[in-house]
Amino acid sequence: xxxxxxxxPESPVQEIQHPLLEQKKIKLAxxxxxxxxxxxxxxxxxxxxxxxxxxxxxxxxxxxxFGGAFSNHLYASAMACKTFNLTGHAIIRxxxxxxxxxxxxxAHACGMNLYAVNRKTYKLRHEPAFLKNLxxxxxxxxxxxxxxxxxxxxxxxxxxAKSLPQSDYVICATGSGGTxxxxxxxCPHNTQVIGIAVLKQASYLNQDIAQLLTDNHRGAPWQLxxxxxxxxxxxxxxxxxxxxxLMKQTYQLPLEPIYxxxxxxAVWQLISRDYFPQGSSIIVIHTGGLxxxxxxxYRGLIPRKL
Length: 306
Hints:
alpha/beta, Rossmann fold, six-stranded mixed sheet, 12 helices, 17% strand
């Protein structure tokens, strides 16, 4: 695995024009990281990049990671196995594996090894003793946390931050905290970084993000907004889904309602309520994950044909 394989051209920035934005005197642009890599899109590529480089530098011949059966991280990790000819092991929140699940089918097709555990065992995924046992079970393997979020992941997201044009606000969807932490580390002091939490009761993420940044954080100020989860993780309202369809039809901007669609809908609501001062420029990060639409169709949460 040659590190030159990771040298990709930067994803484009798409500007959005709309009467609401003109009325509120807001500039809104989308960083299209869904277009960054052909099969490992968005923040999952950013976060996996240096984890894979570190894995190689340590001489590891495989990795172990964690995820839900429909998770974007599982999909991206499996694609990394296929793309770079790696051995990957994934601990799946079970207790059973549904072989008809499109994410599971893709992971198997990529040659990834999947191990279902019950929810009680899955909750141990951050515990040192559990991780030590895993290291014994999978010797010479790098352990990559759920969502790919760790210090190595921040290096990839910092590169994203450095690629952005100057703006007053940079906004992303927040699940595990790695993307907002990397943006805060890499953005300039005069930019406010905002995370839109996509799960309920997400205040605990403030501590996780602060730990990733450490006490000597010298980057951009950041904050996490926790009242825009629209039902919680994996859930969304009809309004959110209608908004996603409208953005695709109007701006050729594909969205899924679990992460980026939920986040951009929240931003739209905040703009309409004058949360941002007039004259503000905002960049929102499209973190990819569009393959998640297949999982939503499979579960009957959105129509199969659009």
